[in-house]
Amino acid sequence: MPQRKPKVLAVVLAGGRVDELSVLTAHRPKSAVPFGGFARVIDFPLSNLMQSGLELVGVLSQYRSFSLINHIGIGASWDMIGRYRGVFVLPPYQGFGQSSWYRGSADAVRQNLDFIQFHNPETILIISGDHVYHMDYRDILAYHRRKDADCTMACVEVPWSKAHRFGVAEIGDEDGAVGGRVLQYREKPEVPASNWASMTVYCFKPRVLYDLLEANAREDESFEFGRDIIPRAMVGHKKVYGYKFTGYWGYTRTIEEYWQTSMDLLGVEPRLSLCRWGIRTNLDHRGIRDCQPLKVGEEGQISNSLVYNGCLVEGRVENSILFPGVQVKAGAVVRNSVLFFDNVVGKGACLDKVVSDVNVTVGEEVRIGGQTSAGDEPEEQASAPLVGSLLAGAPVAEPTGVTVLGWNNQIPAGMVIGAGCTLYPALGPEKMTRSRIADGEVVR
Amino acid sequence: MSSNNQEPLVLLLAGGVGSRLNNLVQSRAKPAVPFAGIYRIIDFSLSNVMNSGFSQVGVLTQYKPLSLMRHIGTGAAWDFTGRTRGVKILPPRTGARDSDWYKGTADAVRQNIDFIKTHPSPEVIILSGDHIYSMDLEDMLQVHRRKEADMTVATMVVPREQIKEFGTAITDSDGRIVEWEEKPAQPRTDLASMGIYVINTAYLLHTLETYRTDMDFGMDMIPRAIAADRVYAYPFRGYWRDVGTIQAYWEANMDVLRPAPPITPAAWGIRPNPEADGLPSDRCPARFIGAGRATNSLIAASCLIEGTVINSVLSPGVWVGPGAVVRDSILFHDCLVAAEAEIDLAILDKRVTVGAGSVVGCGAEEEKQQANREYPQHLYTGISLIGKGAQIPAAARIGRNCIVSPGRRSTDFPHQVIASGESV
């Protein structure tokens, strides 16, 4: 008789904000940030889990969790309902004893050990809900079991110049391209000894994890997997293995990185192919299931872009991503931009290199971004694939000057907003009386 | 206290063959025919029911019900799930005596009297599942109750030349129907029945059980009822189409593309059921790459546009290859149009593939008058119809008013050239 009860429990770390992504995380955790024209960042790890057959999942959530809870719903979108399937959002709670917010990713897991122990897994898979990538976790789980490891962490090669931003592991040659024993691990080292960065994907033997968490809670001041738990495992001579991942890994901490990762979706051979990966999202969230197909008007033009159902394009859209419900009116130009749900771009407006959060209305003849002018002919190479990302290692100029608009803003007609600006969410009309916002300004 | 016992029971007649839609209904019932990219025709009726606030629905099926049943599923897409809400599929069944197929609209309802009796309600609303419209049925119900009618028939004004297709009503100043003519050769009115009825449940049960030879509402029951009972007309003003012919079906799709469209499915609150396709993942946004462009078109999610799309409706997953042109056409799910191919004035059912450089719908303007030889009543305006899963070979030329049957392989084509009016 096959044992139907899952042997692996997955825990998704989805609570953090960590001052990433500027105003896009003013009202939602990073994992709930929209990505890819219809989905949210957390859809990537959740879809990975589903495709890996791992459908018993806890989601640790603390910061502004409503958007995440709303998005995950009952988990049916990822087939996570059933007798042995489920997705459980685990917020901080008060109890008889000490009650506290989650003081870090490790503390969040420790506070939910009763949930984990109830399911009595053979292996605990801990993953971040903040990254865009496609991975079959069965491979790392198999490697973890084959090595009889205490902890196996997935690592990806990053440019040496960026390695100091990550936890980096020196991985022994034991299994060549597959992975090996972690010889040394440093969290955000000034001088990295390796460029294999931890992806925040860990497999643990439950007993080892419980011990590490307990010691961490007892003795440390900080409670993070990368900074505290993995170093503890190394110091304690646990069997820590590194699994080498070679696919695309979208790490988006800044608006520029978010913008670049989004641009990686475009082109003939995109670095990041949503269709090939097979992403699922919650079609009930914001009711996107009910959107009618994209309507392109008589004068509408779309080139090298991703556009979801529910959009109405009567102007010109180039190298851009439009989420459901975006309207681009006649004569407007949207270029190199990512417009979240229900943006309205008024007649004759011009947007270039803009990331705009939900429900932003751009008035007529508004200009946002540096090089935009209404009369421009589309560049010759507009349809060429945009390649290069943070992790590509390719010699692509660091993208700069993305303007980000917080949600629920109304940009009055005729306003000019420069490149690299930040507008906080829901600025009232009294903040919008100026005719011009200079490059790089922050309006709050 | 719930007002459920005041809520009408809705019966949706979805059994019709719709044979004039030719091979679009070869493997599915007419209500299950895709429409406007992501919808099926029955979504309009189901959504009208939902938006009117009614939640007890029976769907009477008979002809090729599988795709319809899969599409309706649990009914969750139209909010028909819950303790007191539900949508039930009612196929014909054999029993002690009534062991026959549905012989007409009234007969179909009669064979489901047991269903009506287990859902006590003051009225039964009977709808057709194959019309494109948006209508507040609650308003019709209120008029019905205000008039204290036994039966109310939704009607609308249609052009004189079309009225011979319909049941027609002549009303008095109060809106009561005093005369009824079914499909009159010489019409005396322009008020046509839309096949939508509100009938008091007790009256309906009594009538069905008393006059057991009445098979059809329009032909039998209404003519009898107007003589003795209170039968009223409910005037509907708005867009309504019985997309029963290829031409009407094509025109209604094109109506969605017009600048101020008379059909606005999202604004009407029409809900599709994207999950019914059972795909392993969700459809991604439509992708435009290379020189791909579209004007005046509906493009559903996960289309890949590398060529040119003009005045057309594309269901999810359609690929238009580099240099290909799609014009004035309707392409169902997952059609593949290879490079340099051209589609002009055609309807392609699901998963049709068109080989590189082929032309579907070629021939001068006058060839559009050259009706299909096999089905001159179905295709006579120039539209060519390509059946589900057919594979058009590379460099083929298919004329006007042509029919390619579902599942035809490249090897089934006798020549590279199919002249206007011919079929494969």
Protein model, in words:
Helices cover 18% and strands 26% of the residues of chain A. Chain A is of the alpha/beta class. Chain A folds into 2 domains: 8-250, Spore Coat Polysaccharide Biosynthesis Protein SpsA, Chain A; 293-376 and 386-443, 3 Solenoid (UDP N-Acetylglucosamine Acyltransferase, domain 1), CATH 2.160.10.10. In chain A, strand 4 (56-60), helix 2 and strand 5 form a beta-alpha-beta unit. In chain A, helix 3 packs across helix 6 (206-219). The longest helix of chain A is centred in the middle third of the chain and has 14 residues, at 206-219. The radius of gyration of chain A is 23 Å and the shape is elongated. Chain B has 424 residues and is α/β, with parallel strands linked by helices. Chain B has 2 domains: 4-255, Spore Coat Polysaccharide Biosynthesis Protein SpsA, Chain A (Alpha-Beta Complex); 284-418, 3 Solenoid (UDP N-Acetylglucosamine Acyltransferase, domain 1). Chain B is built from 9 helices and 32 strands. In chain B, the strands form 7 sheets. A 7-stranded mixed beta sheet of chain B has the order 5-4-1-6-11-8-12. Chain B has a 7-stranded parallel beta sheet with strand order 15-18-21-24-27-30-32, with no helix packed on it. The longest helix of chain B is centred in the middle third of the chain and has 12 residues, at 217-228. Classes of the chains: A alpha/beta (444), B alpha/beta (424). Chain A binds chain B through residues 36-39, 47, 266-268, 274-275, 277-281, 283, 289-310, 321-322, 383, and chain B through 36-38, 77, 257, 259, 264-266, 269-272, 274-275, 280-282, 284-302, 304-305, 309, 313-315.
